[in-house]
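#help-structures

NK: newbie question. if I give both the sequence and a SMILES, will the prediction place the ligand too? trying with thiamine diphosphate
OV: yes, paste both and it writes out the complex. here, I ran yours:
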Amino acid sequence: MMEQRAYDLFMQNLVKGTSHLALGQEAVAAGFGEAMRSDDYTFCTYRGHNHTLVRGASMTGILGELMGRECGLLNGKGGSMHLMSVEHGAMGSYAIIGAHMPIAAGAAWSAQYRESGQVAVCFFGDGTTNIGAFHESLNFAAVWSLPVVYVCENNLYMEYTPIGDVTAVKNPGADRASAYGLEPILIDGNDVDLVYATAQAAIAKARDGGGPSLLEVQTYRHGGHSRADPGKYRPDEEVKAWLARDPIPAYRKQLLAAGVSDSTLDTIDQEVSDRVDAAEATARSSSPPPLDIADTDLWADGTSTWRT
Amino acid sequence: MMEQRAYDLFMQNLVKGTSHLALGQEAVAAGFGEAMRSDDYTFCTYRGHNHTLVRGASMTGILGELMGRECGLLNGKGGSMHLMSVEHGAMGSYAIIGAHMPIAAGAAWSAQYRESGQVAVCFFGDGTTNIGAFHESLNFAAVWSLPVVYVCENNLYMEYTPIGDVTAVKNPGADRASAYGLEPILIDGNDVDLVYATAQAAIAKARDGGGPSLLEVQTYRHGGHSRADPGKYRPDEEVKAWLARDPIPAYRKQLLAAGVSDSTLDTIDQEVSDRVDAAEATARSSSPPPLDIADTDLWADGTSTWRT
Amino acid sequence: MAQLSYREAVSAAISQEMRLDDRVVFIGEDVAAAGGVFKTTEGLQAEFGPVRVRDTPIAEQAILGAAMGAAMTGLRPVAEIMFSDFFAVCWDIVVNQIAKTRFMSAGQCSFPLVIRSANGGGARFGAQHSQSVENWAMAVPGLKVVAPSSPADVKGLLAASIRDPDPVLFFEQKSLYGTKGEVPDGECVEPLGKAKVLREGSDVTIVGLAAMVPKALKAAEILQDKHGISATVIDVRSLVPLDTTTIFESVSATGRLVTVEENPRLCGWGAEVSSLVAEELFWDLEGPIVRVTTPHIPLPSADALEDAVLPSVDRIVENVVRLAD
Amino acid sequence: MAQLSYREAVSAAISQEMRLDDRVVFIGEDVAAAGGVFKTTEGLQAEFGPVRVRDTPIAEQAILGAAMGAAMTGLRPVAEIMFSDFFAVCWDIVVNQIAKTRFMSAGQCSFPLVIRSANGGGARFGAQHSQSVENWAMAVPGLKVVAPSSPADVKGLLAASIRDPDPVLFFEQKSLYGTKGEVPDGECVEPLGKAKVLREGSDVTIVGLAAMVPKALKAAEILQDKHGISATVIDVRSLVPLDTTTIFESVSATGRLVTVEENPRLCGWGAEVSSLVAEELFWDLEGPIVRVTTPHIPLPSADALEDAVLPSVDRIVENVVRLAD
Ligand SMILES: Cc1ncc(C[n+]2csc(CCOP(=O)(O)OP(=O)(O)O)c2C)c(N)n1
Ligand SMILES: Cc1ncc(C[n+]2csc(CCOP(=O)(O)OP(=O)(O)O)c2C)c(N)n1
Ligand SMILES: [Mg+2]
Ligand SMILES: [Mg+2]
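OV: that's the protein plus ligand as structure tokens.
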């Protein structure tokens, strides 16, 4: 299982060329992905490639979607910010800040109503804690005791603005848990084992009828906010310090210390790299989507007809 | 000044026949009205008749507006839920839950920018603490250290639903202050002297650059939510207990104990009653608004023209 | 046939569907224990219990987000937005999330949900509780939009909306809640996307929606009696899907079209209908297309003012007469 | 005359007005220290300082509520909503508060504020970052609605919007940010509510807005060169107030109208213009009124798909040719 996680981590690092990367934040997706049951629900943001991948969505589908190809998870209709793979419980990536938080509550409500034992896990950023939907969702989930785990990935910045400049509390997630009758939980999000353990506990609690959790995991994105952003607003020191805490080499070190051999890890690296190469090649060779799909699937009958 | 406050209180009790009454909550408006400077700003809700009156708006204007007459504060264009008297600092009554909270922050921002020393005071109910605009406003006001005092009048119910059924914390205002780095403040809202003192302190702090406050004042509305509601969902015991804590007779008792004579108070009662009678008579005899005002004042040029 | 009020038909439809399908659940503010501020959902919690019929906090984004998340994972939620003006506080969930996600995901999941809301003026509630906003909804791809004018249609169309596999915004007109009418006994479902010809005439086609329908019918009587003008009256009933077939057939026959809208003028549904006819039926037209709407202003509160600005029977008559001249 | 990009013209207008009037302040997300995600407001904080040019939390209701409260108490705020799709998360403040309060209060206060936003498609951002929503705004009484197509108009119309005593929604078209054009030196203000005739022709009037204007101009060239059809091209520029005078004059002369809209079909501004012409200019028309729009769907993300659904020069040409036949 550890290897699986390492595998996931490495894998993430190799997904390139897109819009909102989570390089540096891989431990969060890896830890949660491992802790979830296969029928649990993931809701994430535009920065959701990792979260979608770890649920089992195909790498070709993801890369193809980023490239706007027919083989994309959404046939090119969604794009980088909207990855979704319902068959894998990846219930969508939402690009309006906070909007997916009540939707995740709704999926949790449905699980509660159907007594299915499923849990919804919802990822969002530090900046998202200042928008109204955050507040409505947390209160709603708490009052209805819904099986949903809200995970604030605090990477210190909204887009280009430091989170401390626009937030009334130091820890945007943890310092607000009490406003919803929840326990404050604040962890190092670059420690994949800790993330995994914390995720397991919160998911188990939700599954057992213990209601929602709000977790704040502290991490950092190595790059800018999006492709257009070189991230120059960040102090060099800060970037350097966090690069030194890159979860991937850190975890490699840990695995080595635990006795996994260098060559085993190199093999995994190579395998992952090969898989990424293959996925990229497949996506590259996939055609652009046929134009007539633009008119399909607005409605459940497959059409987009609005008149008789 | 005490007498002025008593006067206000009595006065409130006599405003009748409208939509969303605040009978039982008079001490809040009276206490705050006294504590505000004449150029401070009030923002309130549909349950805002008292808050508008204590700023100095004409009683005839208020009753006339409730009746849809030309003499109304808004010439009948606003109605019971939208009382406003800008010349008195009563910056409007807003009927969408939470919407006025960021607007109050804006007025406070303007005061801060103009260095005018003005403070904005914003009243809202317990139910309002669960909507997104509440959260956005509090964080925004705290981060910009705005001179605004947010006052949650906790009357135990949203419309017909007990606040405890839909809120994750016991005290919907006070238990959330810390989420915005603010001190929790919870007071008896039926004790007019306490309200006054608390208001004074929060307003002084805001005026001195100390930033926003969030106060929760506990009170009760004697009647139903609105004209259509007999309020039957409330346990008899509860209603009885709160009627026994009616701030108006309570304050009368206090004034008597402080040595104000019965006859002085009776005289005030009578004066107020006469003023209400006079206002009512004037409003009744006022005509309906001329129909052509429906086309006016959409734009600053006085017209509502949208085309050439 | 039973006589039901428009208001009673709402709970009749919801309870009919809840009996048939366990996946149907109903949530909103003050809707459950108290039966709703318009008393449209009285008795539902008593019959179906507090798990299926549930009160929410004042948090419209949470309500509709919850409905969306539930719909995409197997339930068929009905949610209430108390007044349609309040769509503005949760518009993102409606237009950016619910309306788009099926399309964006290339059909990976569907959103069988209904959002009911009390729409429109005439109750002297003032500008923030009186708008007709069905045109806001019509402008958004991915939403079906229904607005009934009679108790029978409330029951049949709401039942159909609940069964529909797509998101439906169901606009109940406040000013009609008290009206009564015959509603068929037993299971009652009326297909979406069909306009209804309520009166046949040869000179002009009057197209209305919701509260404008009874006014249009009244106007048609006066036009016939006082002016010798014979009008067809069509109740659109559903803006999306839009039954252009029925409307076009009639306009082809009469050569004249008048739309009657409660919404403020600009970009109302009547503009869309007018533009469709002006494009596709131009050669059949015998005169201008006239729109009767509320002027492009917010609704004033005073009774005299509100009555003066909402489209009235007289205003409809005048406009048709002007057109026919 | 200087060459400026559409993007640069934004900050040119804001800085021009901030220099002239201390009451003008500017707020938004990532707009101050970082100069905005589209780099439209670079340099403003450096020139005017962090009190007048200020970054906000991600809280659009707070941003626009703050702008409203400030406008009614003496400031002239300019606020940015980063993408116009995000209007949905703060729509209540726009439509129920800002738009209505002057009317409801019988004119007790005014709301001199501007909300700028990046609008429209073509950037492959997907359905939640690409909509054209100027028709949402046009449908709401109490909002002025402006959408420029050239750098000169960005500067002149944005300056005029800031000076205007009423709330203006100012839509900057994303796909035009990189375009360049001559902008007059010195103080530059262009009155609101005037459409602009960019090309005069005798056979048909093509009316466009924002990014559709250069496409319409290109189409007009092709129509002339390849089909011998002479087209007038009008840039609407401001939807409210709407310059019906200029549009009507041209349609009276040509007898034919084609509108070109980037928004999805239903209830677009073109429907309103069409319905006005069908009502008031019917007898001058020599053929159907044709609307060219994006189909009534959300925008797909892939470049091939997005290009296929947005109105193209070819689609405009085809429609005009069809009409002229
Ligand atoms: C309602 C809304 N406002 C603004 C934006 C633009 N925006 C996209 S990402 C972002 C920053 C989000 O910060 P955070 O929540 O910390 O997430 P991160 O990007 O750091 O993962 C902003 C402001 C948006 N997408 N939606
Ligand atoms: C956004 C919005 N949702 C719902 C309503 C309907 N509504 C009006 S008053 C009210 C209850 C408000 O409760 P609270 O904040 O406690 O204020 P109170 O009426 O008790 O003074 C509700 C739900 C509204 N006006 N606006
Ligand atoms: Mg962040
Ligand atoms: Mg209350």
